Amino acid sequence: MFVTGRPVTGTGLALRRVARRSEDTDSPLAAHPALRPYLADLAAARGLALREEVLGTGQAYAELAATLVEAVTSPEEPVDLLVLAYGVPDVQPGRNTALRLAEHCPGRPLAFAVCDQGPAAAFTALRVAAEFAATGACARAVLVVAEQAALPYPLATPAPMPDRHAAVALLLETGPAPVDVRSHPALPPEAVGAVLAAEVAELVGERDGVRLVLGPGVDVGPETGVGPDVLRAAAGQPYTGTWARLAEGEPGAFLVVADYDPVLGYLCVAGFEKSPRPVAHAAVG
User: Fold this and answer.
1) Could you tell me how far CA 97 lies from the centroid of its own chain?
2) What architecture is the 12-175 domain classified under in CATH?
3) How buried is residue 126: exposed, middle or buried, by Cβ count under 10 Å (0-12/13-18/19+)?
4) Nearest-CA neighbor of 88 among 128, 118, 122, 44?
5) Does this chain's domain 12-175 share its CATH topology with 180-276?
6) What is the DSSP secondary-structure string of 65-125?
7) 3-state secondary structure of 284
8) pLDDT band at 275 (very low <50, low <70, confident <90, very high)
9) What is the reported pLDDT for 248?
10) For residue 273, which of 94, 8, 12 has the smallest C-alpha distance?
11) CATH fold of 180-276, please?
């Protein structure tokens, strides 16, 4: 049962803290003996066989992201909501990772996950957090984006796979402006540049101090029209790379984050402010 406290003032969310982590080692949980028959049954249902060279490797998201949740939260600031976004399945499919991560938060946050949307999952999670904040029942929300690089069976359909295990945690707190998340489904690659330019122009308006962060799926030039203050996510981290760039350096007063998934054809764009309080960044582990 979800129990909320007295509504707080504020209809928007602003970025307060960011922490990121990458990991090259594998979790011992990936070698649990119960996983082989479970995964074999899943793969067989699609006519696939297990990849023996990958079985027993990978990372568990609860362990990967727990230190990040602790890094962006503090005991005197209880969290009301935690949303986990991921594209690659966890190596421990039988447990609720979002609830485990919520145990590392001060307060008793509502916690759940968004998946099966490729890189768009993080934008959906951000939209959910924004809608929750708009009710007045969310003073702080934690967004966790995670990916792990091991899949013990062949992909049934094309999907981007990361080079390394990685996770990012964002702490968002109430602010004066709402988060604006926009999605364009079934968008062909040749249309991305023009659509993104129009969205950036509308989101930015007359603002100064704008920082644009482009995901690894976005391959556009200066036609986006926001000047040189652009951060590009490195290739190889299709789910966390975009959000990890927010932990590098001092962002602008207003952030525009965009990514494109050429497999699903989704262009996602989000505009939100940083907190008026100093934004803290951290690389953990």
Assistant:
1) 14
2) 3-Layer(aba) Sandwich (3.40)
3) buried
4) 118
5) yes
6) HHHHHHHH-BTTB---EEEEEESSPPS-TTS-HHHHHHTTSSS--EEEEE-SSTTHHHHHH
7) coil
8) confident
9) 77
10) 12
11) Peroxisomal Thiolase; Chain A, domain 1 (3.40.47)
Question: Rounded distance, CA 244 to CA 249, Å?
Answer: 11
Tokens (6 digits) for 112: 């759940």
Q: DSSP state, 252?
A: -
Task: Please report, rounded to a whole number, the percentage of residues in the chain having pLDDT higher than 70.
Answer: 89
Domain residue ranges of the chain, discontinuous segments joined by +: 12-175, 180-276
Among 34, 21, 143, 161, CA closest to 88: 161
Per the model's pLDDT, the better-predicted residue between 46 and 9 turns out to be: 46
What are the tens digits of pLDDT across the range 86-127?
Answer: 999 999 988 899 999 999 999 999 999 999 999 999 999 999
pLDDT at residue 2, rounded to an integer? 44
What are the backbone angles phi and psi of residue 63, rounded to the nearest 5°?
-75, -35
Q: Kindly state the tokens that stand for 18.
A: 């960011």
User: Which residue matches tokens 């049962």?
Assistant: 1
Residue 19 in this model has a pLDDT that exceeds 80: yes
Q: Give the model's pLDDT for residue 280.
A: 59
